[in-house]
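Subject: design request, 344 residues
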């Protein structure tokens, strides 16, 4: 959902970073082909840890509402023809700014024409996708405008792209500011391309991106300079249908690690709870017990809701459920620890 304060140029340019179709050096002269720079295969999935802080529009004095939750972007369908390929996505980073609840994935189309031009289409998605599935690429000609053109390769440090009327200066267009090694993230190839740093700065806001050709967005940072609105998005797992069979074990290992982390956090919570309970009189103990039971019910129900919202029936649901319980448990431990410290 776009906020009315976001300039159209910013909204259009925001998409560019995930489609950096660049022949990028991977090693001794090896390059990533333009058509491989952003995965377009059905089933490709990105799982992120998202933190969104949004101000109360009705009460500017109130502290921004802060949400932390898993955010999943996935390719739900794909299509291709002579000289073009496209993907139907559920979810995108620009769903997150100004969100007051974890958003459901908004559909959009990523379309590659030729070898180095990518377009992101966000209007009349259902109708346009039906035409693409029928191979009617010509029907989209009116949509393939400069406003929807989000990147033209190659990507390299020092380049600028975005609104062609703004690329003569360093603001209101994307700047490729750096290049470096790609961090280890579950599901990434063993020899990923190097990661690029991208920045878009305007008067009202600023966006920073880390992008890896062949993978996509590793991190996304949004900050609004006026009314508080901030987003931190960090990739925690990448899944590609082209990964070898053993990659499926990676998710199983991730699930196991997440469960183990939750069990450790739950034990820490129980320890602090027992310490706090020991400080209270009988009436206080009873009230703490009621509060803790209500919180436990909330934790599990909220985590179940997020898993259903982000990955109903999918293989990622258990991981999302576990990660949410882990996050909420750590927060509750901090709350009880604060009460314990104040009572000493």
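Subject: RE: design request

Done. Sequence follows.
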């Amino acid at each position: 959902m776009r906020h009315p304060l976001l300039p159209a140029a910013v909204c259009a340019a925001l998409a560019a970073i995930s489609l950096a179709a660049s022949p990028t050096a991977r090693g001794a002269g090896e390059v990533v082909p333009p058509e491989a720079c952003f995965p377009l295969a059905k089933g490709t999935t990105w799982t992120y840890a998202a933190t969104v802080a949004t101000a109360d529009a009705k009460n500017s004095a109130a502290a921004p509402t802060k949400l932390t939750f898993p955010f999943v972007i996935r390719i739900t369908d794909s299509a291709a023809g002579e000289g073009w390929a496209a993907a139907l996505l559920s979810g995108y980073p620009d769903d997150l700014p100004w969100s007051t609840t974890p958003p459901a994935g908004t559909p959009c189309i990523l379309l590659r024409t030729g070898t180095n031009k990518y377009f992101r289409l966000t209007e009349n998605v259902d109708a346009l996708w039906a035409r693409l599935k029928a191979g009617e690429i010509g029907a989209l000609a009116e949509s393939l405008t400069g406003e929807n053109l989000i990147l033209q390769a190659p990507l390299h440090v020092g380049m600028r792209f975005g609104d062609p009327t703004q690329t003569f200066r360093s603001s209101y267009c994307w700047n490729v500011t750096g290049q470096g090694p790609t961090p280890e993230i579950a599901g990434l190839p063993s020899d990923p391309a190097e990661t690029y740093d991208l920045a878009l700065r305007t008067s009202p806001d600023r966006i920073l991106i880390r992008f890896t050709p062949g993978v996509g967005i590793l991190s996304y940072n949004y900050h609004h300079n006026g009314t508080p609105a901030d987003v931190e998005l960090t990739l925690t797992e990448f899944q590609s249908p082209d990964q070898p069979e053993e990659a499926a074990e990676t998710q199983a290992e991730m699930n196991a690690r997440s469960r183990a982390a939750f069990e450790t956090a739950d034990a820490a919570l129980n320890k602090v709870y027992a310490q706090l309970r020991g400080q209270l009189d009988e009436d206080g103990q009873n009230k703490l017990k009621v509060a803790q039971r209500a919180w436990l019910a909330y934790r599990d129900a909220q985590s179940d809701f997020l898993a259903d919202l982000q990955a109903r029936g999918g293989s990622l649901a258990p991981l999302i459920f576990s990660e949410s319980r882990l996050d909420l448990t750590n927060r509750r431990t901090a709350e009880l620890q604060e009460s314990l410290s104040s009572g000493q």
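The CA atoms of residues 92 and 298 lie 28 Å apart.
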